[in-house]
Write a structure and sequence with these properties.
Blueprint (H helix, E strand, L loop, with lengths): L1 E5 L2 E3 L5 E8 L7 E7 L6 E6 L6 E3 L7 E6 L4 E6 L8 E8 L10 E2 L3 E5 L2
Parallel strand pairs: 2-11
Antiparallel strand pairs: 1-3, 3-8, 4-5, 4-9, 5-6, 7-8, 9-10, 9-11
Amino acid sequence: VQLVESGGGLVQPGGSLRLSCAASGFTFSRYHMSWVRLAPGKGLEWVASSRAGIYSSYYANSVKGRFAISRDNAKNTLYLQMNSLKPEDTDMYYCAADAVRYGGTDFGYRGQGTQVTVSS
C-alpha cells in the first residue's frame, strides 16, 4: 500500500489549497479514505472522510463548510479542497485508508504527509 500526498504549501489567511493523495497497492474504490492532520505538540486530528460504497462525506466541525473531500476512483486519487484557510489550519496533513473504519484517527494506512502553513 502506498499513499503519496501533494499540494501543500504556504498560503495567506483566507486563501485556498487543494491537496491530492495518489493511492496504489490496494483496491481504492473499496476503501474508506480520510484526511487527518497533526501539529507539533498536538495529537492527530481527524479532518474528513469519504466513505466507500455510498461515497458519502463527513467532516470535523472545525472544517465543515470550508473544506471538501472528494475522490476519483478511476485515478485512485483522493482530494481535499481547503478554502477560507485560517492560521489554526497549519498542520501536516496526511491521507489515510482503511477497509472498515472512517471518521476518526484509527486506520490501517497513512501517507508521509504534506505540510500546510497558513500565515501572512
